[in-house]
Amino acid sequence: MELQELFDRVVKHLLTQNKRANDDGYSGCKYRTKDGLSCAVGCLIADGHYNTELENHGVLFPEVMAAVEASIGCTLSTKQLVVLNGLQRIHDLYTVVEWPRELKRIATEFGLTYNA
């Protein structure tokens, strides 16, 4: 999967969902919530490759990387991992209204097209 395609897939997910993936009583973001939400990286993980042990770990954690790679059918490059880490941080650290600005910043930084 090309970097632009990966970026577009996550951006579309985030802006369509338009809500953080949090569960009640849990302060951090999750790859999957009980009500079906997913984070910037969680949207890339197929059901068959997800397990709750991935929670509380970033995309650079080996088991999370392996779940994403198995789900999308390719090995992630260093640049893809850096972008995914940035997208995960946007989802986790910024308010939803700030997402478009931050997504555009990531796109500019990595020479990607932002079509929101």
Write the layout of secondary structure elements.
Layout: H1 3-17, H2 62-72, H3 78-93, H4 99-109
Structural notes for this entry:
This protein has one domain. It is built from four helices and no strands. The protein is 46% helix and 0% strand. The protein is mostly helical and 116 residues long. Helix 1 packs antiparallel against helix 4 and helix 3 packs antiparallel against helix 4. The longest helix has 16 residues.
Distance between the termini: 20 Å
What is the typical, i.e. mean, pLDDT?
94
| Beta-strand content estimate | under 5%
N to C succession of SSEs: HHHH
Report the strand count.
0
Tell me the count of domains. 1
Which segments are poorly predicted (pLDDT under 50) over 5 or more consecutive residues? Answer: none
Cα radius of gyration in angstroms: 13 Å
Looking at how many chains there are and whether they match, the oligomeric state comes to single chain
Q: Biggest sheet, in brief?
A: none
Structural class: mainly alpha
* Distinct helical segment count: 4
Helical content stands at: 40-55%
Describe the global form: globular
Key attributes of the depicted protein:
116 residues, mainly alpha, 4 helices, 0% strand, globular
Question: Could you give a short description of this structure?
Answer:
This protein has helices at 3-17, 62-72, 78-93, 99-109. With 116 residues, it is an all-alpha fold.
